[in-house]
Prior knowledge:
By secondary structure, this protein is α/β, with parallel strands linked by helices. Helices cover 37% and strands 26% of the residues. Helix 4 (81-89) links the parallel strand 4 (70-73) and strand 5 (94-97).
Amino acid sequence: MNESKRALVVGAGTMGGGYARLFASRAVPGVELxxxxxxxxxxxxxxxxxxxxxxxxxLYDAIHELKPDFAYVATxxxxxxxxxxxxxxxxxxxxxxxxxxxTVEDGDAMIQAVERAGIHAEVNYSNRWNPPFxxxxxxxxxxxxxxxxSFNVRLNNTITxxxxxxxxxxxxxxxxxxxxxxxxxxxxxxxxxxxSVYATAGYGVLADLGVSTPDWIHATVRYEGxxxxxxxxxxxxxxxxxxxxxxxxxxxxxxxxxxVDVSHQNIVVTGxxxxxxxxxxxxxxxxxxxxxxxxxxGRMVVSFPDAMEVTRILxxxxxxxxxxxxxxxxx
Length: 331
Ligand SMILES: NC(=O)c1ccc[n+]([C@@H]2O[C@H](COP(=O)([O-])OP(=O)(O)OC[C@H]3O[C@@H](n4cnc5c(N)ncnc54)[C@H](O)[C@@H]3O)[C@@H](O)[C@H]2O)c1
């Protein structure tokens, strides 16, 4: 049997902390946690010591001392490029959080860095492993749904996410943080690439709280071959919402409609509070798939070029918010 792969976690926040725990728990066979990097020493230390690993504030030190077998990068949306270029130059395989990049320039630079290094690299569009979407893809592949041409999707968070949980919410938008998942699922399920997008944004609630980002973004995406999709990403659901998010996904094909609603997590508890405990957790399957691909026998890979489809659509969507016009996805 192969030895365990030693993982380096870069960015010790919500996602980095969760994946560090997953790696350290040995819940995924063949992986262990080697170290944790964060620019904030207390964060790196807290996550590393809770999981029996070494803490670093300098990525170079971590790479050279630990010589990890791969790195998981979970820095804020617009800050993936720096760590990715450093890790790629050192020849370290990568699993990078979504969205790959928030500019086409950053995304192209990361693709080139990975190609130059000849390393395995994937983006964590993790909902491709979320069980209801796995089944949706099976239905599409079976031909039962026919040709998928219409999407109606909303993925929304309570206001706690941008107001309290994310210190960097003003440097991203609900579209980068949330809609990126939905656009990736639409692309993955239908195989379609986008041609143009029209988007609008609403402002006010978060701005009044001192968080300079849209309260919501709505986007209508036109796909090649005549399909289209309507997408909503909202960051101001009230905290009284029974869960942390609302995620409702509809894909309509020529022979069937597919509806997924993971907001409720298949369980509703009504006691002192009315809430949806989290039951759907697929991080193990996602990491197992990455490890298989790293070993050269994976079935599914979210490559950097594949993930650039979402970056291109969202760059055009943000341009559309500014211009008020329908914007081409490829300029
Ligand atoms: N796949 C998913 O389902 C999913 C879910 C939530 C978030 N995300 C993505 O994960 C990423 C991280 O989100 P989060 O919620 O964990 O954010 P977070 O703010 O909780 O954590 C980010 C951490 O990165 C650190 N950091 C910033 N720059 C760094 C650098 N150059 N080197 C090392 N550390 C650095 C910050 O200090 C912070 O501790 C984002 O891109 C986000 O969109 C993915």
